[in-house]
Records
---
Amino acid sequence: MIQTVSNAAVHNALGSGIKYSAIFAGFMNRTLLVVLFLFAVVSKLGAQVTSPVNGVHDDREGLFAFVNATIYASPEETIDNGTLIIKEGKVEAIGAGLAPPKGAVIVDCQGKSIYPSFIDLTPVLRLKEKAPKKEAAKKKSTHVAAHWNSSIHPEYEHLQEFPLADKVQKDWLASGFGVLNLHKADGIMRGSSQLVYPGFSDANKAVIVSRAAQHFAFSKGSSKEPYPSSFMGAVALLRQTFYDAQWYANGGIEEERNTSLQAVNDLAGLPSIFSVKNPLSVRNVNDLTSEFNRSFIIRGTGSEYRLKLETPQKLIEPLALSKPFDVSDPFTSQYVSLEDALEWRNAPCNIRLLLDAGHEVAITRDSLKTSRKFIQNLQRVMACGLSHAEALKALTVTPAQFLGIDQQLGALRPGFMASFFISTDRIDHKDFKVWQHWNAGELVFESQAQRTDIEGKYSLIIDSAAYELHVSDDKSGKFKAKLALANATGDAFKVNLEQQRELITMVITKKDSVDNSAWRLTGKISLKGGVWDGRGQDETGRWFAWSAIRSTEELPGKPKQTMDSIAPIEPFYPMGAYGRDSINEDNTFVIVSATVWTATDTGILEKSNIYVENGIIQRVGNDFEIPQGVKRYNAKGRHVTPGIIDEHSHIGIRGGVNEGTQASSAEVRIGDAVNPWDINLFRQLAGGVTTAQLLHGSANPIGGQSAIIKFRWGKGAGDMIFQEAPGFIKFALGENVKRSNSPKPGDRFPLTRMGVEQVYADAFTRAREYELRAASIPSGKRSRKNAEAPTNRRRDLELDALVEILNEERFITCHSYVQSEINMLMNVADTMGFKVNTFTHILEGYKVSDRLREHGAHASTFSDWWAYKFEVNDAIPYNAALLTKAGVNTGINSDDAEMGRRLNQEAAKAMKYGGLSKEEAIKLVTINPAKMLHVEEWVGSIEVGKQADLVIWSGDPLSVYSEADQTFVDGILYFDRNWLPEMEARDEALRSELLAEMLKQKDSKSRKPGPKGDLLYHCDTEIHDYTVE
Amino acid sequence: MITRLNSIAHLLVFLLTSVSLLAQVPMPAPEQEQSVLIRYAKAHLGNGKVISNAYIGFQNGELTMVSDANTSRISVLDYDTIIDGEGLHVFPGFIVMDSRLGLTEIGAVRATHDFDETGDFLPNVRALPAYNAESKIIPTVRFNGVLMAQVAPVGGRISGSSSTVQLDAWNWEDAQIAADEGIFLNWPQRYVKTGWWGEPGPVKVNEKYDEQVSEVFRFMEEARAYGTTDSHAVQNLRFEALRGVFDGEQRLYIRANKAKDILDVVQFKRHFGLNKVTIVGAQEAELVLIELKENKLCVVIDRVHQLPSRPEDGLNKPFELPALLAENEIPFAFATIGDMEAMISRNLPFHAGTAVFNGLDYEKAIQALTLDAAQMMGIDKHYGSLEPGKSATLFISTGDPLDISSNNILEAFIDGRQIELSSHQKDLFLKYAKKQGISVD
């Protein structure tokens, strides 16, 4: 080992500089932070050592010169025959052929490379998160003035995890990482991380910055708090906490002490790193960026290339290269979906694609268990088109910039910290290996004794008899050997080989020997492993000389180390079955000779034409001249209806459909959880559905806010939102909210219909008070001079939604079954001064149609469902017809992914049961739901001026003997049955190609395929682990 | 004033009648006493044939005449009742397979569940005595043309025996057409769903698959050995219950969906030399069509209206399965297994209609709903088609019963008995139409 100087003072100064900054936390911004940091570095020369010394002081200059190296000083600068001079922990000089100063220890790096240490912003040091400690598992203890929810702990400082286990530190250093930003990957607001140098056992030396960044995620981690139980709940909790922190800063502190909210504000200037577990969550992080004017660096999943991101992002990406599936069985391999196969195939190209799209990318080693694995993956990614400079940038400069430490770390320049490693080769070369790692001027890692590579084929001579010896690298840091050919007598031999530095020991025994014949050899290695020689002893104790000479031949059967370069499969959207390569946005066309079901008073028009220009219906009928030169759809013998509107759907949602942990969860938004990749969107588009209300479930009386979407398959989640549609919210009554059918009903209020009423009474009473208080409180800072003045108003996202209902800015869709509860809610509404817009399901609506009409409520019901629970005992299939005839605006909804694609047929049931006309029946799934969703101005019927959401059916749209041929949304053709053969052929060809590749790469670690369990949400679906996001 | 009095009078009459009607399952029809002739209707015989202008006569519950009115001569005086069927259609009563009708009332109320017994190997457990002829669901299924059902248990590995019932009876004894005609076996699954319906988990590889298959083989080996003799010191009810499967009296219905599971079922069938085996489900049949055909397996299609199981699957794949089986001459019948399976069986005709739109020949669809189902259950001598000598179990429809808006059953007969087509749902409809002042015709 080369002796190293102590540079503790440097690190102390750096660390303490930041600690002081906390005093200014309230005002601190990032610039100031960087300034403080710089100040700390500049002042290091005058730093003092705080710890007493036992014995004689041993201060050293730490002056080293690394000569004859290829130095990759930064991604752009390569210095051949370079010299790196370091002193007192910093780079003193760097350049080609510099003469080492006097007094410097000279380290010869002939044939070696020097890189600045890699920086990992989100290392995961354990494969699994530590099992939650008992304290953490508990709910928030009442004597800590912290956030009420134990997944929110921004005040947590990641200090106790240091020092790391020696083995762990060494392995990270061996993978090139010399700067780690350690945080505790647990919870939603995870607190701050500290930036450390691995390799020191003394934290005073290791810590570079003690509050380097703050960390966020949507996963609640070890928190045993029931809330949030859904992805959208996590989003809401974060938003509420940010608002609470604003309130706290503006005077809320006068009302309560809260270290968590204080910490949110204190950390506001730190870089924010947001870990997502699903690429789709990037959208949610960006929403937080715009709402709170905060910027986030996103720690991605390794497949962010699947997104169409419009603005450049700062991303931290793992090298998540998954194992291929075992596809040896043609039957079971059919369960490997195209999506999974593509994800496997494109994973090495993720960063390449992201850089091409203009994003900034840092690489994280993530949870890769061994340095070897990381380097393998890195080399694989580089083989797929990531250049040496790009890789280096992603490992050094970019992460340093993200953290604002790029003037000290991430490159080797005079004045920069002397953190670097010396490797046997370039990182993209198969022989790359970290030889030494230096951190802050100290040698903190040296690979096993600069072991000589002895791999190869040798001619071994013992007692002047020649044997062929094969030595191969067993990939675990050891070599193993075998005698390839038996000797003349036909004996087979077993070889045990051990290498210690430049010495070698071998034991050679006969495999099937009944005698004890054995040779034990010891010798030295010369000429870079090419020649071994020494002495040995046989089983009789006789000594002899032996030698081995490496031949120039390659080892037989040695797998080629070269990595295949693969070009990425160009992303399409969504990247799986029936994804779209591109969308033809042409939205001017004419449909001719159709039977047009207008869903208006004009009823059904025979042999009519529809002219659509720029996505808007311009003419309907047969009394206008068909414009020339526009795309023409001949619908002779076919029927056209408005796009079907599903008032009640749970498809296209991810991370849970219920936030049922509280009686009211009005703050959560399905819009946060829209999953544009759900294949059921496409399937329903093929069933003529163009608009749906994606609803929160029915686990609690006041559920969450709906997302009304248009089925723009192939676009992103944000693009699916029906922009003109007003806000909606789900309410629910009856057995689900009472948890009657839950195996573990628990004690969450309410458990009876009596309690349900009180939930509403209470919620709207609070909402009224909140609104009144809001009116009386000026927003902004409380005047300290006038203590009597009211404090600033705390924005409450739950009550905001309820106030919106009171102000008719948000509309209720209420899950309901029996007449008593329906009347109850209308009573509460009348008393509290709001309106129930829609009763959904409402299977006993026919009993109370007069009351509904009076209240002005809409009804959205099932065609013929019943008998699935007690409260639907009186459900009758005549419901829709009776309600319609009673003058209640009525729709038929799905609440079911399968039925959603046959809603046209469900509407026909109102003809069979109760005798509605065709014209009335089609309205049940078009204009009527449009009215209840308050979107009838734009969609729901075929009328001039409306958006061209149209379906061309092969026949009578109410018959089981027809299907949608074409579906248009906004006048854009999003589904054409004629496309299917081509799409299916493409999917099958692509899948087969990828499976063939997998078969080639099959090994024992291949993943076993299995069918996907489609997570189809119903009203009642509650999940307790949404962390897959 | 007069109006007011009238309305009160109406209300009184209404209340009086409703008390007697409401929440009641209609009374089973009495034995056929009068002979009936349906003339000039289009008869779909259930065996693939159609008579466009037919005479259909029946007496004492039995069809006496099914013939072409253009070429036959009859005497109307031979019949007590003549139904003029011009423009109407006649079909044999539809049959729903692997059904929970009468074994369940309300999905979420466990107390009403009598289909899932505890234990693993339960061949001796019988669905028939648990069949509740008074179930409120039954009339709501009947009025769409479904007049018979195979009621089957679902629990354990071997669930027990199924029976065929007709849907207009006082009790299970009256209802039975074929008692214990089949045994249901749930083939082990290579992949298992985790979680429960409210909290679904991922699908996992079933590590115990081989072990579970061996268990089935072992149990069946012992049952077969037991069945080779009648003299047993100790009687084993489970093995006794399987005798019929080995001697070819009973059909073995095996629920299996995945292609590889079906291949294992084929090996199982061959191993035991069973000749009457039906696969229930067979969602991946397209991969094992040859095996199904060569081994003379038939299929109960679990549910036409379902989502494709893989994202890559054709959008209509489940809709196309019946046509695919027909094309490959694999006999099949329909079920509505899954969510709300008992109640949803009233939509059985529409499932078949979807299959027709997706390539299945219309009369073949009718055959699957009638004769092929009857054949599977071994009741085709008496049921399943309109042929002289068979039971007069049929219905008259104004239109195509396989399409929703034209499914309108005017009259239905079970064993010649003209059954009531009302239901508590219709009663509620009338009651509240009246309350809300809505006129209904």
---
Amino acid sequence: MSSGTFAAYRPILIAIAALAALPLAVPMLVGAGLFAGPNTFYNLMIFILIITLAAQGWNIAGGYGGQFSFGHAAFFGTGAYAQAVLQTRYGVNAWAALPVAMALGGLVGAVIGLLAFRARLRGSYFALVTLAFAEVFRILANATPITGGAAGTLVPLRIGFGQMQFDAPAAFFYLALAFVAVVLILNRLLERSRFGAWLVAVRENEDAARALGVDTLTVKLKAITLSAAITAVAGALYTQKFLYVDANIAYGAWISVEALLAPIVGGIGTVFGPLIGAIALIGLGEAAKTVIHAAFGSAVPGVDLVVYGLLLIVVIAFAPRGLIGLLRTGGGR
Amino acid sequence: MLEVQGLTKRFGGLVAVSDVSLTVPEGSITGLIGPNGAGKTTLFTLVSGFQTPSTGRVLFRGDDITGRTPESLAVLGIARTFQIVQPFAGLSVLENVAVGAYLRCPHRAEAMAHAEAVAGRVGLTDLGRPASSLTVAGRKRLELARALATGPRLLLLDEVLAGLNPSEIRDIIPVIRAIRETGVTILMIEHVMQAVMSLCEHVHVLANGRLIAAGTPAEVVGNPAVVEAYLGHGAAGRLQKGAAHG
């Protein structure tokens, strides 16, 4: 390992260390009145990390590979349902269910990818087909008994490390952070690999990539499989955190939107884009809810969506390369 | 090295390439010329696998490669450039070339070193800047570098000199000659006759999808059929008369 190699990973290690140190600041943040209590803080952070993970998945196919999916809910939901159903119906341990959920998500990604890419779907056609798949999954999950139908699936509360349910809220925060950290490093490895170079070449110009010997179908299939598997882990973590899924949570359009909006706002096709975007979107959404609540004395439903819309317009108008692009203006990578 | 046998490509009622047969000897620089719309680029897309011929065969080193995909042909050792340059605009110059280099070098360090060496050979400098900031001449060199980085045995160059000014053309001719010196066979489509005359040993002339002449550059430019293809029916005769009167 040369010093140049280490330099490429240093910002990632610093970011992970900073996030890991956040719990130290909890007493201060609560004391300053920013959060009602430690649990409020942890719930927000865990939610941000789960969305980050889903967005990191999207960013591999969408950001690096240029295959804009509008249906990552299909993978998130498969992970979420697999995690819930394996435990409740088949008595599988939560830790053992997680890799299965990930594999199933990857499989769904591979199948959708095979159908879409073999049919040479690109751009908005690919986006529409993925959206349609996610909707079909949502309707099926709402109707079939194995998923609990419209009632959803409730994972019984059994606190214990062996059940991946923790008494201390910090524990789940660190679990989610560990997954985000692994994917941050994985992303950098990808950027510095042959597969990553070919994936970006596919995004930039498929014909030119083919002329240089890039098997674009295989590259895209690998990317969507990896992308789906990572987003499925986010779904599985969601199940473990909230211990409940139904079709509208698991396969709802909301998660497809979060998964693609976070990288676009943060910086598409970059290592930190999904993380920065998720923090900005969800952080500002929560802040807006709190401010509105304080101002009007009651919650105004949907105000976070208004914030998303505004943030998206501002980013597209003033920072087409995302928030990370603002930090980097003039600098190299 | 390359043998094209009776290649025909129809687009509906239009016959873009009609029963073309030609060979490119190993180690040569062979030219393919002809007026606009003659079917030169279509012939390239057939040879490089981007389209499949309606009839006919393409042989590379004796093996039938008709209908194989561009990516598998690149692995075999056939690389092409595009007439309309296709840089990966979001990547740096070096990263562009590295995409080609990764074909033979799976590891990053090797691929980057190879890409740098190839970029140097074609005279690209300032490799860290975005490919989108290159001038036309720079983009042409980038096309050449990327194709060359895949380690081809046969290089198909589609008008790499078009759009360059005379001094830029003078600069790039030795680069192409040097590529041939390393054992790469070249088939080039070119309109710039100065380059064709100085580089090619053998030239094929395409007009209206048909091969109308072949020979050394000097033979071909003196061929009345070639003159008529460029200047219109009867032009050769008028030119001769004009020369006699003058």
